[in-house]
Amino acid sequence: MFNSLFLIIFDIIFRPVVMFMSYIEVNDLSFSYNQKRMILKNINLHINKGEWIAILGHNGSGKSTLAKTMVGLLEPSSGEVIVDGLKLQEDTAYDIRKKIGIVFQNPDNQFVGVTVRDDIAFGMENLCFTKEDMLHNIDFYAKKVDMLDFLDKEPSSLSGGQKQRVAIAGILAMKTEVIIFDEATSMLDPYAREDLMNYIKLLHKEGLTIIMITHEIEEALLADRLFILKNGEVYQDGKAASLMKDPSIFHEAFLELPMALKIANQLGDSSLSNEVKGFLWEYSLEK
Amino acid sequence: MGIQFRKVSYQYAANQKGFYQAIKDISFSINSKDEFISLIGHTGSGKSTLAQHMNALIFPTEGEIDIFGSLIKQKRDKHIKYNSLRKKVGLVFQFPEYQLFEETVEKDIMFGPLNFKVSVEEAKQLAKTALQLVGLDESYLKRNPFNLSGGEKKRVSIAGILALDPEILVLDEPTSGLDPLGKIQMMELFKSIQESTHKTIVVITHDMDLVYAYSSRVLVLKESKLVFDGSPEALFHNDNLAQFHLDYPSTIKVLREIKRHFHLEINEYQKTSDEAVMELKKVLP
């Protein structure tokens, strides 16, 4: 009796907490390889399910390190990462990696299979999927990223863009909730990049949480939210559209503005110039 | 003198079932001096394969390549000193920073020259000079390459090739993975190396802004074939670029949009944002 009452009270108090808890919480996280230089300093970042967030920063700002601490590839010097209510540590890392997949910048670093088919299956094998599920998922997700015709090819014979798509298929097949793209488009040509961005848009629409690590403002603008790092610290965290109104933010974070905004910032103050500026702003945000 | 491709094709043996045609019937030549060539094309178009032929790292399955007088055909020829060709044409792979392995920057840069039987003292001197060429000061010599930033590592690995004093420098996507500012710094570096040494530089890239602003000549590959060989102006100053699966440089794209929307009399062919702004200010009060 006392027990169940306790459970009910417990439930009343904590259910709202659980409901409003972010899917991923990074609390007061710091990281350094040695004590000399801090790569990340007191990072706080809460990400909700279904969000599309871009983590933006110059080379060496710590953005990739942050991504690696979020999946337990690096252990923070202090602070914590909580995913879906689980605190990330040695004994939970396995479960947390079922929830978050990561696509790296260089897909060569993440291939294990002899064929594309093997490679897509690898993650599922580790999670003990049934054979039927695996076979179904391989075809389904290979088709989704337009690699169905390449299933019997060796990953090493693929181009960078194709490799990256295979990596995504492998993660999708594990049914993760979140995918981190760690500069995953930086090796691709403009068309392949646009292609990949379109796949990402689609995945987001289907409810996947997207975390995009990038230094390309144009790419970051597709996200709902921008999280900007500068020298290892949180510099800005807000809606993409509202941050874009102040281009000096990007300048101060050592980021290059998209061409349209670079031009807009240097135009004069006449009414026609202002009209052109307004047009260039819209042009940037549309993309 | 330089490199001449004559009807070169290359097939990868993809698996037992068939072959993958990486480049097809390609002919062109590269001067050994004063060229700044961008090699571009969609992913999988054969750019890296083509680059690897430039210093006989792989042999063509059809056709022949003349590299500084040595004729590269399908089979290894015992009269050709392949090593010396690789000294004449320095090839920097994609993500060369992953290939650093020595405990100091100096040792890493010296590795190449020492392999070519240069004395230790001489190799040290070459390392110093090469490091200077890539814009890093001497304090880097004793540093551990693994503690450098991505951009610095790239510079060190490029210095390793420059220490061989190649006549032609071929770089496979040297700017990938760098942020926009880092990309510009890297291209400025190649420009200054070219201006001071007159070496021909071949750069594989996907960044049309860099192609437009820096190169004197552009080679475009599409589906394994060479479909364009000419100046960046000849490539970008026309309306049918989509046939090559390529995009326009962003200055041209943005100025075209402004031109169309505001009906302004401007020349959209500007290479940098500063030039674009100057052009706009001619018509904007």
How would you summarize what this structure contains?
The complex is a heterodimer of chains A (287) and B (285). Helices cover 44% and strands 20% of the residues of chain A. Chain A contains twelve helices and ten strands.
Question: What attributes does this structure have?
Answer:
heterodimer, A: 287 residues, alpha/beta, 6-stranded mixed beta sheet, 4-stranded antiparallel beta sheet, 12 helices, 44% helix, globular, B: 285 residues, 10 helices, 10 strands, 24% strand
Classify the oligomer. heterodimer
What is the helical fraction of chain A, as a range of percent?
A: 40-55%
By secondary-structure content and strand pairing, the structural class of chain A works out as: alpha/beta
Strand order of the largest sheet of chain A: 6-7-8-3-9-10
Query: Tally of extended strands of chain B?
Result: 10
| Largest sheet data of chain B | 6 strands, mixed
What pattern of helices and strands is seen along the backbone of chain A? HEEEHEEHEHHHEHEHEEHHHH
Mean pLDDT of chain A: 86
Tertiary shape of chain A: globular
- Alpha carbon gap, first and last residue of chain A: 60 Å
Largest interface: A-B, 44 and 45 residues
Low-confidence stretches of chain A: none
Global structural class of chain B: alpha/beta
